Amino acid sequence: MNTLIVLRHAKAAHTPGLADRERPLTDRGERDAGRAGETLKQMGLCPDLVLCSPSLRTRRTAELALAGLAADAPLQLESEIYEAYPDELLELVGRTDDEVATVLLVGHNPGVHELIMSLTLSRDEDGFPPGAFAVLETGPWAGLGPGDARMLSRWNPKDH
User: Fold this and answer.
1) How many Å apart are CA 79 and CA 101, to the nearest integer?
2) Where is this region: Disordered (predicted)?
3) What residue segments make up the domains of the chain, in order of their start?
4) Residue 123: per-residue pLDDT
5) pLDDT tens across 89-134, in order?
6) 3-state secondary structure string, the chain?
7) Which of 15, 23, 91, 123 has its CA 20 to 30 A from that of 143?
């Protein structure tokens, strides 16, 4: 079995005149991203590969989460994660090498939330707030599709 960790970027600032891709994390976002990594470490999870949107807020979230994990997994910036639909995210994850057992995907809503709901065939009324992550158990990366994952855990920074 493989593990897919889906992490939504942490809380970002809304700065007038700043391009969406350049929005930085707020102070709370910085703290939450580090806490997400620390929580994953406490859970005994460590990614073999990080797939990350190129936006500033996702890159910083990934950086701080990896620091909290004390992990040095390779980070691949993937432009297709930005504004991606769930099927596009599935296609990206599906290209992962078979040797990779654990992937951390850092992206944006609504795509990452819809990806989780599709993979687990669940209806999620609680949403997926900034800085939240879900840990999914999956089969092989290639051909991964709706209903092919089981939710192992979920974390929301507002609850912890």
Assistant:
1) 23
2) 16-38
3) 2-159
4) 85
5) 999 999 999 999 999 999 999 999 999 999 999 987 778 999 999 9
6) CEEEEEEECCCECCCCCCCHHHCCECHHHHHHHHHHHHHHHHCCCCCCEEEECCCHHHHHHHHHHHHHHCCCCCEEECHHHCCCCHHHHHHHHHCCCCCCCEEEEEECCCHHHHHHHHHHCCCCCCCCCCCCEEEEEECCCCCCCCCCEEEEEEECHHHC
7) 123
